Amino acid sequence: MMTIKELVDRWFEIWIIGDFENLPLSDTFKHTSPYGTFQKNEYLKLIAANKDKFLGNKFDFHDLIIASNKACVRYTVSKDDFSMEVTEWHYAKDGLLDEIIAYYNIEGEINTERQLNQ
User: Fold this and answer.
1) What is the mean pLDDT of the chain?
2) Is beta strand 25-33 parallel, antiparallel or unpaired with respect to 96-103?
3) Domains of the chain
4) Would you give the end-to-end CA distance of the chain in angstroms?
């Protein structure tokens, strides 16, 4: 069974090499970001449909805080002339990633359910 540190390391290793089919995800995995919340199967479909956007990214890690079954990672992701600051909470269950909550600013339209009321 993988520790939370091993899961975080594996998560980013997979994003670098593009082996998305082997992400260490639980059956109840969900991913939340400014784009919305996606359950495991929807998330994997989203990744597959946009694989070209995820390959070739460089990660510059700034902070990693680890507790028993969770970790917080702060990093800069960049590719070509694009870069973005990201903070993610990774939660583990039974040696697999069960939930990730990602915080970052995206330009352009934001999912309607994530927009602030004015």
Assistant:
1) 89
2) parallel
3) 4-105 (3.10.450.50)
4) 47
